[in-house]
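INFO worker-7 received task bundle
INFO bundle size: 2
INFO processing item 0
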Amino acid sequence: MVLSDILLSVIVPVYNEAATIARVLERVREAPFKKEVLIVDDGSTDGTREILRSLDGRDAVRVLWQPRNAGKGAALRRAIPETRGDVVVFQDADLEYDPLDYNRLVEPIVRYGADAVYGSRFLGPHRVFLFWHYAANRLLTLLTNILFDNNLTDMETGAKAFRGEVVRRLRLTADRFDIEPEVTARLFQGGYRVFEVPIAYSGRNYSEGKKIGGWDAVQAFIRLIRCRLTRP
């Protein structure tokens, strides 16, 4: 696989991100890859859908419409089978993750034969805030490492890249934010090669639109245990 020949499939799950979605897509377009962009609108009600209708079909952008808000996991599962790329990247629709980090995410797949690459928020420059959110992330990552005998630093990161054939092969069922631990568990259970790289992270707080909360951490914990007790 040669970097310049790669087709990158970028999946963007979107729910009520009218304030940021256009800027995110501008940055995605700037990433130096041949790409297709699959946006999944998860039942937005804040004007996001109107923005996406104006973008659908332009610059290799395709919008998939969920009939109701079903969650990030459901949105990702809706888009994954539709991808055609050699590499598939998950991209949140806010401005926390920078598409200019795609080179970092893709390089281990090309150079080292990685099957999946996680962009770690704790290895690169990041906004310093929200201690309890940080603590929950660290605890869930620790539990992941204990259950699956690995040494990730950031299981919950929203910046993930995969070989296309690998992510399309995963059997995923999670509908909400527990898609992150489910993807991770199934990769490790499948014996896939997972790498980590540092990325920049500009987190936002709840007044700025952050959506993940304490109950999501509980669901992630339950999902990890369930995955450990079952085979994919």
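INFO item 0 finished
INFO processing item 1
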Amino acid sequence: MSFWSVLRISSSGLRAQRLRLDLIANNVANVETTRSDDGGPYQRSDVIFREEGGPFASVLMPSRSGDPRRVTGPVGGVRVEKIVRDSEPGPRIYDPSHPDADEEGYVTYPNVNIVVEMTNMISATRSYEANLSVIEAAKRLALKALEIGR
């Protein structure tokens, strides 16, 4: 695996986690939005990732030549497959004075759970930091290689 492949893979992870963090921030910002463009309450968004290149397991397997250090297939990182809306209904709270209350006086709030969003945010932040660490390690290795070559 080349230096550039490492940078390409880690940068794809950085982009993916940045998008995930943006979606989480949007979910948290709309935690009390009872009326969205489509008329109902806001529905939380989530992202689905997919690996690029071949299956990641093929990278971990020895090559046909028997050399376990040789990568056997293309490795391309991660990409966003799609952004999905969570269709689970949000909580209904009795508040007849609310402008979005139904005939019975109930307001349907977004299906955003702050605890879940904060947990997802911590996970995305850790993944982002891990990809940054890989880029820093690759940079240090490349600088050491240049230093040895002098």
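INFO item 1 finished
INFO post-check item 1: The mean pLDDT is 87.
INFO post-check item 1: Helices lie at 3-29, 56-60, 114-149.
INFO worker-7 idle
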